[in-house]
Design goal:
Number of strands of chain A: 9
Distance between the termini of chain B: 24 Å
Shape of chain A: globular
Helix content of chain A: 10-25%
Shape of chain B: elongated
Number of strands of chain B: 1
Mean pLDDT of chain B: 81
Largest interface: A-B, 39 and 37 residues
Number of helices of chain A: 5
Low-confidence stretches of chain B: none
Radius of gyration of chain B: 16 Å
Radius of gyration of chain A: 18 Å
Oligomer: heterodimer
Low-confidence stretches of chain A: 1-12, 197-202
Amino acid sequence: MVLNHSDDGMAGSSVPTTAKILIAGGFGVGKTTLVGAISEIRPLRTEEPLTESSRAVDSTRGVSAKTTTTVAMDFGRISFQSELVLYLFGTPGQERFWFMWDDLAIGAIGAVVMADTRRVADCFPAIDYFERNGTAFIIAVNSFDDAPRFGADDIRIALTLPPEVPVVMCDARDRDSVKNVLVCLVRYVMNSRSQPTHASLS
Amino acid sequence: VPIVDLASEIELPIGVVRVLLGDLTGDGLLRIVSAQRQPVPDQSLLRMVLDGLESL
């Protein structure tokens, strides 16, 4: 939706073209970090402290230093020249907030599903979701310092991914690394559109 | 102005902003226009995004 302070005065001001990419993945996988690493403004955060009552639903197994969680969504904006704005939406990590995804998925270029090798199964729900609604996605393995390292093929097997879905390693804190992930997604979407039966990543 | 930009600027949760905007619209103080949005981004948009990302 776009707001207009009606009755112009600002008539003729062109509405920039917008595109969006979704950033998904399990709880605590680094979505907030990734969005913050590349977007030009501070992500729209609504971090809430983890409380006693959420302990049963939000497992911090393996990420015990985590004391807050993103409740709504992170939001980043990258403005390119030529009136193009790319929005990044970090989707909620907790499944109980997934009703918000249906709105988000409409019109998105695609999604980056982030994976943590310590808790690789956490991204299954996101993969299921995007496969069901036909959103193109790639897997970005966030390389945590203390996490075991696996090759892209091992991850692909563990997640039972179709062969054409790209799996890339990344460091969510690193701007160039994040940029590479987004480029990979856009290329993948472009290629799969032009060659629907032989989608491949160049 | 997209609602997400507003929410970010004034540092309020997007749900709160939606409610505020809803109230303002209800009182006739504001008009909400839906952005034109393609259900699926076309190749030219993808190319623009790709070029933009690569030039970052």
